[in-house]
Specification:
mainly alpha, two-stranded antiparallel sheet, 19 helices, 2 strands, 75% helix, globular
Amino acid sequence: MDLSNYLLMKHELSLVVVFLLLIFYDLFASDSAKKYYFPVACTLFLAHTVLCFFFKDNGESFAGMYVTGPAYLTVKNILNIGVFLIVLQANAWLKKPDSIHKRGEYFMLTLLTLLGMYLMISAGNFLLFYIGLETASLPIAALVAFDKYKHESAEAGAKYIFNAIFSSALMVFGLSFLYGASGTLYYTDIAANIYSTPMIVMAMVFIMSGLFFKISLVPFHLWAPDTYQGAPTNVTLYLSTISKGAAVFALMTILYKVFPALSGIWKDLIWIIILITITVGNLFALRQKNLKRFLAFSSISQAGYIMLSVFAGTSAGMAATLFYIFVYVFSNLAAFGVISAIEDKTGKVNMDDYNGLYSTNPKLSLAMMIAMFSLGGIPFAAGFFSKLFVFMAAMEQGHVLLVFLALLNTVISLFYYLLVVKAMFINKNNSPIETISTDGYMKLSLIVSMAGIFIIGMASCIFEYINKVSFGIY
């Protein structure tokens, strides 16, 4: 093994350095120095996030087990931005008496699961992919059960780990079939040596099922509402954005690098799953009063929309996938940031509790409204353009009926997103939630999230206008 193999793994090495520095700081710093643990951790991770934008590597390491390139680096950078904003929102929660001594554990677990997602994204071999998958999954289970003395958090952690074990077992079962048929675990070698047989098809279905669990696609979605509701809100946000974004990209890579010969089979399967996922997510979201469960079913529906671009299977589809993940991260950050700020101060998470919120907390209400507009795809929020690009990528491949049905579902989603806006701005409440004071970290995260929604939306609008002008439409 040559040390030069590690030179392409700059994202991973940089994250490991941050991880080790924080471990040593937590272990050996004095009690007075540990007061600054949170700002030091945020500063180190911000430095890592900024530094990673300067990495421009392209190639393979370890005989093709590890692969990197522009698309891989872009996904990792999006995840870095999302994780940085998520940890900013964790400050108030980690200051609580039952969490203040676990700040080190929170950062260790978060960085470990991010490292696993890096490996999932850059894997060119199923062995490395599975190592990354487990490295990402196990720390998340600990994060879900982080508030271990709260019944809901412990229950959510148990549900998540049991479902994760079952999905991993399915995937390993499929990998055993795949290895038996092809004699290799390398993506490119498998693609060159397999063809449509019942065993290969079954292996593909098992492998896809494991990733469908991570993305919470129907019928592998039932863990999400209970886990999202029981987990700490900050961890719920991580599950709904970072974990989902990494899994979507990994699934797209596997489908087009490993199973292109079976595209006729898995495209029919995914067509059905996309439609069911969007519909089920929307219909169940209509019935929710708990906002964390509400956003759980919303994220299930959003997963279906993301898969539309994966389904397209073109360069435009890949670009739409990356753009959708980027926008979705900012939109969910704003929504969960408001929920977290209110829950940390009042413990209230039901939609009815938000009645009349604008009268006492206009800024938080505005942030939540912008997030709902973006998630619903209302012009000219960034979410409108993310859905537009996804629909365009699918339409280019002739999936007219699927896009039409997805558009009908968008109308349903607009209704339940606007229910939250109606509660805050229209519904009357004689005793609304008191005025909430948020710390600087939360304010920064919300400001960046809202700015991202607006800036990406405006940039997309300008891009579309220039594109139409160049083709003589205007």
